[in-house]
Design goal:
mainly alpha; Four Helix Bundle (Hemerythrin (Met), subunit A); 6 helices; about 90% helix; binds fe (ii) ion
Length: about 180
């Protein structure tokens, strides 16, 4: 699969999980109890599928190539913005985890921080994905040399195969499907 097509496919899966997260936040707002096991699955998905599996391909392969080849304006502008949004997402997830611990320890008011950080993350990532799908990826695909695109594709395939041999994709799609069934 072409580099960009693969990344866009992963975005679709991430967006499906964002939908589940938003629904869980709405349910909590309406009085539902927090299911800590399900939150653990969502955070696992965010950290290991959205971040490790997907953002790693952007940071270490595709955006890296764009940085190397397309020069300073690309590096100091849009690519840096994408990297800092990845970081902001990590912060929201850490805050979410802390808020969950607070609620678990009996601080009911911390539910507002669970909702706030979950929604902040889903909103950030939805916007981030739209920017990548509609602007950054097409720009990279149209401006990188054929050689660089081929090199990126080869590296991505290797990462994909390596993850597949560890069952990464299957594990996280299974989690996604089970949470969709439960919440949507
Ligand atoms: Fe990204
Ligand atoms: Fe992305």
């Amino acid at each position: 699969m072409k580099t960009v097509d693969l990344l866009v496919e992963e975005h679709k899966n991430i967006k499906r999980m964002l939908k589940v997260g938003r629904q869980i936040a709405i349910d909590i707002m309406n009085g539902a109890n927090i299911d800590y096991d399900d939150f653990a699955l969502i955070i696992d998905f965010i950290r290991n599928y959205a971040d490790d599996h997907h953002h790693n391909k952007e940071e270490e392969v595709f955006f890296k190539k764009m940085k190397e080849e397309l020069g300073e304006p690309m590096v100091s502008g849009p690519i840096l913005a994408m990297f800092s949004e990845h970081d902001l997402g990590r912060l929201f997830v850490r805050n979410l985890e802390e808020a969950l611990e607070e609620v678990k320890a009996g601080n009911n008011d911390a539910k507002v921080d669970v909702i706030a950080n979950l929604i902040a993350y889903t909103d950030l990532l939805n916007r981030h994905i739209d920017k990548e799908d509609n602007t950054i990826y097409p720009y990279g695909e149209n401006n990188l040399s054929k050689e660089s695109l081929a090199e990126a594709e080869e590296k991505m395939q290797r990462l994909e195969q390596d993850a597949e041999s560890k069952g990464v994709q299957k594990k996280y799609i299974d989690i996604l499907v089970s949470l969709e069934k439960k919440y949507l």
